[in-house]
Amino acid sequence: MTTTTPRRSGGLGRVLIAVYGLLALAATGRSVYQILSEFDHAPLAYSLSALAGVVYIVATIALLAPGNTWYRVAWITISFELVGVLVVGLLSVLDPVLFTEKAVWSFFGRGYAFVPLVLPVLGMLWLYRTRPRVVDQATAAPVGTV
Amino acid sequence: MIEWFTLVQVAVACAAGLLCVVLGLAGRTPADITNGATALVEVLLIGQLVVAIVAPLTGNTPTGSSLEFWVYLVTALLLPALAIFWGLVERNRWSTVILGVACFAVAVMVFRMHQIWFVQLA
User: What is the SS3 assignment for B60?
Assistant: First the structure.
């Protein structure tokens, strides 16, 4: 008997990782441009977008990398994203002056087709499916290879 | 930027995206049709690259930030190539879905490029 962590990067997980990578690229790239060219326009929103971009990058790596530590990192980063999009989304609705629609988490990710709102939920479902569990190695079937 | 060419490009990228996602979910591994559709998206992007270089010389300049436009264009050019490469390395149905994801991302990015070139709200 041993504890195994099923692969998170197999099957459907590949698509999830590709979309995470894409969002990481979009959020980081765009916020870097915004900070360089029009930071004064919405300093808080653009700083948060840059932070979000970095967290998306870490989450992408955590989903790709095997092992229990990365599994925990994936949970932390993906939870952070969900909290971020909910808190910033709510704040931007209550006080629209504070945030701009061009930021990742403003208005629950409306500027990004609500992908930032949906993705953490899908990520959590995927992490739950590929959670570490105690199994008999002899009968262990690869999980996550859909 | 040529408006009709850009809109055709968005439509083709959406169609290619839909085709790849549907065939991928149906269990197909990347094949000539899905790789070809993605390659077509890439070829149109290269056309867009040529237009973006030539157009300003004829007085057709972006109304928005040309730096932002170029960041989108260069990134978009990488996506279909990376997705096809991914599909060659890992041959299963999810690679076909990823081809579709890349095509949809290109559609969104070309639409954003269209906004930067033609539409300024602020």
Answer: coil
